[in-house]
Amino acid sequence: MSIKRNLVTIKGIKDGLVFRLDERCEFDELLTGLRDMLENSETFLSGPLVWIDVRSGGRDLSDEQKLQILDVLRSKRNLLVRSIEGSKSAELRENAVLRVPINTMSGMVRSGQVLQHDGNLLFLGDVNPGGSIVCTGDIYILGALRGMAHAGSEGSEHAIIGASYLAPTQLRIAEVISRPPDSAEESSAHPHETQMEFAYLKDGQMQIDKMANIARLRRDLNVFKGV
Q1: What is the domain range of residue 18?
Q2: What are the Septum site-determining protein MinC N-terminal domain coordinates in residue numbering (predicted)?
Q3: CB 8 within 8 A of CB 22
Q4: Which tens digit of pLDDT belongs to each residue from 108-123?
Q5: pLDDT-derived band of residue 183, with 50, 70 and 90 as boundaries?
């Protein structure tokens, strides 16, 4: 079932939503329509985290236009943009899984348990203190990370660790180890104000940023495919 709201059609799919953008209007008009739709859809688009795929039909989108669309969509903190595709099928994925597939698992990692995975992993659930996730690729946790996470376990320094609530006992990317980030410690006193965050390496040092900024990071690292 599709819902037409101004210049945006929203369609539910098995693992998220597809936003189909009008391909005939001016781009500035499209951005305004998208912004208005989000502002007036508190009930429809609020609640649990949901993956979003954006389709612009026959409209060619530049990298800058894709980033403008991302800036509008991230006003809804529960929307995780998975891809933005124009007529050339060039994708901009905020979850940064561009080169290899991502596998999904769900459950809970309890104290003393270690979940190991080869590749990129989307984990739906919590990682408790004393629990660990170890992956050769990226780790995305739609839940709380209160235990340990090790991404890029075979040496990839481009791997990232993202979580809805980032309060780990330890973060590790490749061979770089970090203690709990200050931002997570500070936000624990105000859990309703937290945003999905991710950890990455920059010049060999662990950095923490909001997940909404991952598109710019990947662009700066020249990971995006050319348009």
Answers
A1: 2-85
A2: 8-84
A3: yes
A4: 999 999 999 998 888 8
A5: very low
CA neighbor of 52 nearest in space, from 87, 37, 40, 60? 37
144 belongs to a structural domain: yes
Q: How far is it, in rounded angstroms, from Cα 49 to Cα 82?
A: 12
Q: Confirm if 95 and 218 have CB atoms less than 8 A apart.
A: no
CA angle 224, 200, 99 (to 5 degrees): 35
Element (H, E) at 72: helix 63-73
3-state secondary structure of 20: strand
HEC states along 99-146?
A: CCCEEEEEEEECCCCEEEECCEEEEEEEECCCCEEEECCCEEEEEEEC
Residue 94 lies in a domain: no
User: Which residue type occupies 143?
Assistant: G
* Tokens read off for 118: 């080869």
Predicted confidence band of residue 173 (pLDDT cuts 50, 70, 90): very high
Number of domains in the chain: 2
- DSSP-assigned letter for residue 192: G
Residues contacting residue 174 through CB under 8 Å, at least 6 positions apart: 152, 153, 155, 156, 157, 159, 201
Which residues does 56 contact at the CB level (< 8 Å), separation at least 6? 20, 21, 23, 84, 85, 86, 87
Given a contact cutoff of 8 angstroms between Cβ atoms, the answer to whether 109 and 127 are in contact is yes
Instruction: Give the closest residue to 155 by CA, choosing from 176, 133, 179.
Output: 176
CATH at 55: 3.30.750
